[in-house]
Amino acid sequence: MLNVKGLCAGYGALKILKGIDIDIGPGDIVGLVGANGAGKTTLVRTLAGLLPVQGGEIRLGGKDITRIPPQRRGAFGLAVVLENRNLFGELTVRENLALAERNGRGRRQVFSLARIIDLFPAVGEKLNVRCDLLSGGQQQQVAIARALLLQPDVVVMDEPSTGLAPKVVKDILDVLSRLRVDGMSIILVEQNIAIASSATSRAYVMATGRVAHEIPEGGWAGFMADEKLVSAYLGQH
Ligand code: ATP
Questions:
Q1: What DSSP designation does 122 have?
Q2: Which single residue of 55, 153, 173, 181 has CA 20 to 30 Å from 28?
Q3: Domains observed in the chain
C-alpha cells in the first residue's frame, strides 16, 4: 500500500531524514515513535509533500508519488492530519468538511457525512460552528473527519493526542480501531508510548532521522518491558 524507500529530506541543505524505509499494507495501523527531534514531523511533512525530497521514493498503491504536489496526493489515496490541524478557522465545520468531500469525489466512497457523524458525534453537534471557536479536541476530530472524507487508502496522523484530555484521546483511538474494518491503513505518530502501544499493532522507532528499531506485530509488550531500549530510543521509562 505505502512503500517508502531510502527517503531523504530536510530543510534547505540540511539533511534530517537519512534514508527511511517503511512498508505499510492494507488495514495496518502502524506507530511511528521516537524522542523529540527524531524526525517524525519531518517525515510526516515529507509524506504530505510539504518538504522537497532529497533522495529515495514514496510509492502509494504502486504509484510513485514522490514528486506529486501536496494538494494532489489526496487523489492518490493519501490523507495527512498535520499537528496544527490546518483547518480553515473562519469557516464552519460543515464548510471544512464539504471542501474535503468535494476533493474526495473521484475516489471509491467509503465515508459519507452520516458515517462521519456516527464516528464523531461531537462533530455532528458542531456542524454550523466556526472551526476557530471549537475546543482543541473538537478541532482534532474535525481534522480527522476531514481526512476521512478524502476517502483515503492511507491516513497519516501527527500526534493527534497532543494537548488533549485523556477522554478525548480515548474517543479518537476508539474511532481509529473501528476504521480497521475498512482496510484503511493508518500511520500514527505518537510520542507517548502508552498511547502508541494501545492503538497500533506494530511500530517504527525513529532516532536521528533514521528508523533505528522496528517493533514487530505483537512486539509492543516486549519492547516496553526492555527499559534499556525504551530509554535509549524514547528517553521514557
Ligand atoms: P517532536 O516530537 O519534538 O515533534 P520530531 O521527531 O517530530 O520531534 P522533527 O520536528 O521532525 O522531530 O525535527 C527533526 C529535526 O529537524 C530537529 O533537529 C529539528 O531541529 C529540525 N527541524 C525541524 N524543523 C525545522 C526547520 N523548519 N528548519 C530547520 N530544522 C528543522
A1: H
A2: 55
A3: 2-234 (3.40.50.300)
Q: How far is ligand 1, taken at its centre, from the CA of residue 181, in Å?
A: 34
Distance 203 CA to ligand 1 centre (A): 20
User: Helix, strand, coil shares of the chain as percentages rounded to 5?
Assistant: 40, 25, 35
The answer, yes or no, to whether residue 180 has pLDDT greater than 80, is: no
Atom 10, ligand 1: residue with shortest CA distance: 41
Query: Is the Cβ–Cβ distance between 48 and 68 less than 8 Å?
Result: no
206-230 tens-digit pLDDT: 999 999 999 999 999 999 999 888 8
Strand 185-189 to 29-34 pairing: parallel
Protein residue whose Cα sits closest to atom 11 of ligand 1: 39
Strands (E) across the chain are located at: 2-11, 14-24, 29-34, 53-60, 63-64, 78-81, 154-158, 185-189, 202-207, 210-215
